[in-house]
């Protein structure tokens, strides 16, 4: 099989997405089935086991292109939003797809079975989750499935924020969670991806991909004396966002939280842990 990045290429030794025929050899080529994430979020794992490494999470309303649904309750496929490939629980998916009209704009909002806050929530939807609103009643937005959310927690899908750093700042104090990208926990690249999504800028999932694809590169020594809010600082396997000229915001595996701290302290600590120096600074 031709070399490829497994993270974003729907190809395995036993099957390959049909659109890759002619590029990657395989015994079976499969047309994908469009499904939508129905759960509050869905874990995407590297193998079809509950204890397999978590690579990322799919948010409520995301499109998942399914290339296999096995007998053990796992679906293998690719997220449409960022092209990530992996296994998600089949029960988290549904064929009930309608074009989304709104997305969650607060860190987390409850999904109710009806227009009452006294009902037990069916799920908690993280910022960036998408829904299809067909009606309103009192303080509630009603989805095409008849479920309800607080209307003030939503914005139209074509509404974009102007300052992605202000979105990232809302996550300060949220636990670090490898592979996470919800307000229950997230990792460094998940924080960047979610924040950029609110301003309408798509971003790949992992920090090495983000380093290659986002913004334009600044000369490190010169940039360190002239950093601006929103500059992205990359190390090997890590990324952070500048809040101002000297303060870094990042999901830190050292603190196990999203933290704001002096960049100089982060640089010293990361170097001491053998992660090395800053590898690049990117300006959007």
Short description, anyone?
The protein is mainly β and 284 residues long.
Major sheet characteristics: 6 strands, antiparallel
Total of DSSP H or I helical runs spanning 4+ residues: 5
What is the strand tally? 25
Radius of gyration: 20 Å
Instruction: Give the averaged pLDDT, no decimals.
Output: 96
The proportion of residues in beta strands is 35-45%
Q: Calculate the terminal CA-CA distance, rounded to whole Å.
A: 36 Å
What's the order of the H and E elements? EEEEEEEEEEEEEEEEEHEEHHEHEEEEHE
Give me the side-by-side strand order of the main sheet.
20-25-21-22-23-24
Low-confidence stretches: none
- State the helicity in percent bands: 10-25%
- Choose one word for the global shape: globular
The SS-based structural class is mainly beta
Overview of the molecule:
By secondary structure, the protein is mainly beta. It is 13% helix and 35% strand. It contains 5 helices and 25 strands. It has helices at 164-169, 188-197, 207-213, 220-223, 263-272; strands spanning 16-17, 29-30, 33-37, 41-45, 54-59, 63-69, 74-79, 85-89, 93-94, 102-104, 108-111, 123-126, 130-131, 133-137, 140-143, 148-150, 154-156, 181-182, 185-186, 216-218, 232-235, 238-242, 247-252, 257-262, 280-283. The strands form 8 sheets. Strands 20-25-21-22-23-24 form a 6-stranded antiparallel sheet. Strands 8-7-6-3-9 form a 5-stranded antiparallel sheet, with no helix packed on it. Strands 13-10-17 form a 3-stranded antiparallel sheet, with no helix packed on it. The radius of gyration is 20 Å and the shape is globular. The two termini are 36 Å apart. 40% of the residues are buried.
